[in-house]
Amino acid sequence: MRRRVGETAASKRTEGKSVKRETGEVQTKTRSSWWVWVKMGLIALSTLYVATPFILQFFPSVIQYLVYKHAVTYFVDLRRPCDLGLNHTVNMYLTSEAGVTLGVWHTVPEQKWKEAQGKSLAWYEQSLGDGSPVFIYFHANTGNRAAPHRLGVANVLSALGYHAVVMDYRGFGDSTGKPTKGGLITDALHLYHWVRAHSKDSLVIIWGHSLGTVVATNIAVKLQEQRNPVDAVILEGAFTNIKMPKGQSQPFTWYYWRFPYIQYYFSQDSTEANIHILLNGENLKKMTTPLMILHSKDDHMVPFRMAEELYNTAKSVLKSEDKVRLVAFDGSHGYLHNGLYRDPSLPNYIRKLINTIKPI
């Protein structure tokens, strides 16, 4: 009996040692497997680090995609804005130049939503001349006209009783072609002239957001030189210059600066050759158009100080408190770069702008 008990105890001790040994082996294998993945990841990052300059040298269009990000899209049918709640909006296409077709949405004032049901493109075109202000919105460098914050702006304007015309530049959304500096300006001017041709005596205001601000200020200056000035300009999340002092980050592409060879991505030669530097600061030195600058103090992509710099530049040129205004939104709201359309006071600021420029 004692022998059996002893044998049983010895067997248990042996089994315990075996289990511990097997557990130790499993832990060793797990650590080993984890370390293999770490090494593979480090090798992959090192390879990317070394290969990046060569990739950019032989495929410069990569920079274009990094900056414009026009390939980033939303899985929606842009021909059906009603699917996104814009049930008083028409989708149309304009040709800005040979081979370039632009996708455009026109949202009429909210009070016309019932009348707008089932109406033709011709009806929408004629409605631009009904006397209500018309806003042309130039969006930023990512996605297309279906982005949630762009829908938000269209809804705010429509609720105020205004028209909203939102375009996708060439290469964005379902517009054809590839984005370039000259191309974006050509597209914007074409849309402006098209709106002017149909709006009769209605006010026409251009609203640019982020990258769209440089489009807005560029065409405002060109139209001013052509003696066909826009009635007012709104700049939302505007930056001073894309060309930054050495060692400082680009405003609307700040996150790229955390990766290898990022200085090469946006070096002087690469920038000028591929994304074409546009200068808001220089444009505002020439603009005499009434201007409103909208900026959130917690903007994580374009620092608020840039809005202050642009405001000071414009004020020194216009020399009028009535013709230029900086509207700052408190950072506690969490609007960041794209959320200003959610602010309940925004409609009042837009109304004040309209009342300021409205012909007597």
UniProtKB/TrEMBL annotation:
<dbReference type="GO" id="GO:0052651">
    <property type="term" value="P:monoacylglycerol catabolic process"/>
</dbReference>
<keyword id="KW-1133">Transmembrane helix</keyword>
<feature type="region of interest" description="Disordered">
    <location>
        <begin position="1"/>
        <end position="24"/>
    </location>
</feature>
<keyword id="KW-0812">Transmembrane</keyword>
<dbReference type="GO" id="GO:0005789">
    <property type="term" value="C:endoplasmic reticulum membrane"/>
</dbReference>
<feature type="domain" description="AB hydrolase-1">
    <location>
        <begin position="133"/>
        <end position="255"/>
    </location>
</feature>
<keyword id="KW-0472">Membrane</keyword>
<dbReference type="Pfam" id="PF00561">
    <property type="entry name" value="Abhydrolase_1"/>
</dbReference>
<feature type="transmembrane region" description="Helical">
    <location>
        <begin position="36"/>
        <end position="59"/>
    </location>
</feature>
<dbReference type="InterPro" id="IPR029058">
    <property type="entry name" value="AB_hydrolase_fold"/>
</dbReference>
<dbReference type="GO" id="GO:0006660">
    <property type="term" value="P:phosphatidylserine catabolic process"/>
</dbReference>
<dbReference type="GO" id="GO:0004622">
    <property type="term" value="F:phosphatidylcholine lysophospholipase activity"/>
</dbReference>
<protein>
    <submittedName>
        <fullName>Lysophosphatidylserine lipase ABHD12 isoform X1</fullName>
    </submittedName>
</protein>
<dbReference type="GO" id="GO:0047372">
    <property type="term" value="F:monoacylglycerol lipase activity"/>
</dbReference>
<dbReference type="InterPro" id="IPR000073">
    <property type="entry name" value="AB_hydrolase_1"/>
</dbReference>
